Amino acid sequence: MLGPQSMGYDRTTTMYSPEGRIIQTEYARESVRRGSIAIGIKSNHGVVLAGLLRIVDLNEPDLKIHKISENIQAIFAGVAADGRILISRSRLEAEIFKLTYADPIDVRGLSIKIGDYIQMFTQQGGLRPFGVGLLYGGIDQTGPSLHFVDPGGGVMSCKAKAMGEGDSEAIAHLKETYNEDLTTEQMVEIAKEAIRKAARDAELSDENIVLEVMPYKA
Fold first, then answer.
1. How many CB atoms are closer than 10 A to CB 205?
2. Number of helices and strands (H, E) in the chain?
3. Burial call 45-62: b when 16+ CB within 10 Å, e when fewer
């Protein structure tokens, strides 16, 4: 709910409200909060991405986790069409980097490139921010890596992250159970339980949960 001082400042991304906020990006973050839950966990033993599949009527469920390159996977929450565009952009940036430098892009480097691209949509008239948040996970020269990209273009390195509907319950569970030496099997179980808590359904079937496990051997 916007305060009276913010009224009218939500009609463009090129104007700050008196409180110093870009209201359109806050609307975009609300789109992320209404998306199906997505979770990433990183430890010394690898990275796990997990998400809840929403099945509507007789539609086949869409992909929730996407392969970006040989070493990077991504998951998003929010507006599906926006997510599809950013996944395609991510694959393009990863391929350009590999063709240019003959090495795979690292997770942070890719996250920053996508964050820069997203940020451009918060400072040009006639455009709207992407209503999606992304988690990039993978194994690169630094080891296991997990990064979150915000609808405003912010990039954050994470140990564990949840976004989407019910994220506060999922984050509370991650805080209770996380440590840096979790095995990939333990991370999978923690991710599943966090999704069940977010969905408020203790009996949620594993068929409704998608997982990607990226183990790391030093």
1. 8
2. 5, 9
3. bbbbbbbbeeeeeeeeee
Name, in order, each residue with C-beta under 8 angstroms of 79's C-beta and a sequence gap of 6 or more. Answer: 31, 35, 130, 131, 132
Query: Do 129 and 74 form a contact (C-beta atoms < 8 A)?
Result: no
- Single pTM value for the model: 0.91
Distance CA 214, CA 218 (A): 13
Distances from the Cα of 167 to the Cα of 37, 171, 203, angstroms: 7, 6, 18
Strands, E, within the chain: which ranges?
38-43, 46-52, 65-69, 72-78, 132-140, 143-149, 155-157, 160-163, 209-215
In this predicted model, what pLDDT tens digit does every residue of 38-90 receive, in sequence order? 999 999 999 999 999 887 776 777 789 999 999 999 999 999 999 999 999 99
CA 36 to each of CA 46, 89, 105: distance values in angstroms, whole numbers, following the listed order? 24, 22, 28
Structural domains of the chain in order of their starting residue, each with its CATH number: 18-53+62-215 (3.60.20.10)
Nearest to 146 by CA among 47, 13, 26: 47
pLDDT category of residue 202 using cuts at 50, 70 and 90: confident
- Whether 3 shows a pLDDT value over 60: the answer reads no
Report residue 30: phi and psi, to 5°. Answer: -65, -35
Name residue 188's amino acid.
V
- Give me the sheet containing 155-157, strands edge to edge: 65-69, 72-78, 132-140, 143-149, 155-157
Q: In terms of pLDDT, which residue wins out, 78 or 16?
A: 78
